[in-house]
Amino acid sequence: MLWPDPTVDVWFLLLLVTAHLEQTKVMENGGVKRGIVIKDEWPGYSLNLFTYPEHYHEDIENVYIPHGLIMNRIERLAHYIMEDFWDNKIMVLCVLKGGYKFCADLVEFIKILGRNSNRYLETRVEFIRYKSYLNDQSTEDLHIVGNTDLSFLRGKCVLVVEAMVDTGKTMQALLKHVQTFEPRMVKVAGLLVKRVPNMAESLTDYVGFEIPNRFVVGYALDYNEYFRDLNHICVISKSGKTKYKV
Ligand code: HPA
Ligand code: MG
């Protein structure tokens, strides 16, 4: 009788373990912490391949991240959040104006996942607004617009929802402000994290996409209040920048 060679099994097992570890590494580096990484040379999709509001025809160069992909990624972020906020109520702090679509879709996915898994995560949404951009240039200070009193966060598990994190300076300032109200736990969801020098990757717990250092608009991200009504995330064209400059 022929016995199988046990060394073959050992090698096979080793191969499986290595493959699994590699996969885990990819998940930790690329998949989870950095989100979907968009490379510097990504040209975006041709406008002809998608639908978008006619009034922006001349003002955008390409579709950088299609709306469908944004939605799929947000659904995945909702999964991560459900895992981390096990059996808790969640206080969502939506950063306006850019974060309103991301926040609404994220909360919706959390609700759907809750219904489908019978593990409902109670969500309450509050809003904060600050201004730190003029045209496409970042100014460094945190100017909270309106009510700065966030005492409703005290003792709560807080999820800060922000559409765009770049240098992280404003996020850092906001988190410092949030901490003064002594929440129980604070996590940050950022739909887009920009790959800038001194980028603040570690501030964001749930990253949708890591993107190159380019100015993008759409999906509630604006250029002087324009383009929020565009569903895809797009790169603004030269003429668009000129047309809507203040
Ligand atoms: N687009 C719109 N708003 C922004 C951006 C951007 O790329 N970066 C910071 N705020
Ligand atoms: Mg803006």
Describe the fold and architecture.
With 246 residues, the protein is of the alpha/beta class. It has helices spanning 6-33, 67-84, 100-117, 169-179, 238-243; strands at 36-37, 60-65, 89-96, 122-134, 137-145, 157-165, 185-194, 206-211, 216-217, 233-236. The strands form 2 sheets. A 7-stranded mixed β-sheet has the order 1-8-7-6-3-4-5, with helices on both faces. A 3-stranded antiparallel β-sheet has the order 2-10-9. Helix 2 crosses helix 3 (100-117). The termini are far apart. Mean pLDDT is 87; it is low at 15-31. Bound molecules: hypoxanthine and magnesium ion (MG). Magnesium ion binds at residues 98, 133, 222.
User: Whole-number radius of gyration?
Assistant: 21 Å
Helix content: 25-40%
| Overall spatial form | globular
The secondary-structure class comes to alpha/beta
How are the secondary structure elements laid out?
Layout: H1 6-33, E1 36-37, E2 60-65, H2 67-84, E3 89-96, H3 100-117, E4 122-134, E5 137-145, E6 157-165, H4 169-179, E7 185-194, E8 206-211, E9 216-217, E10 233-236, H5 238-243
Parallel strand pairs: 1-8, 3-4, 3-6, 6-7, 7-8
Antiparallel strand pairs: 2-10, 4-5, 9-10
The structure holds hypoxanthine (HPA) and magnesium ion (MG).
The site of magnesium ion has 3 residues, from loops.
Would you kindly provide a brief summary of this structure?
The protein has 246 residues and is of the alpha/beta class. 33% of the residues lie in helices and 28% in strands. It has helices at 6-33, 67-84, 100-117, 169-179, 238-243, and strands at 36-37, 60-65, 89-96, 122-134, 137-145, 157-165, 185-194, 206-211, 216-217, 233-236.
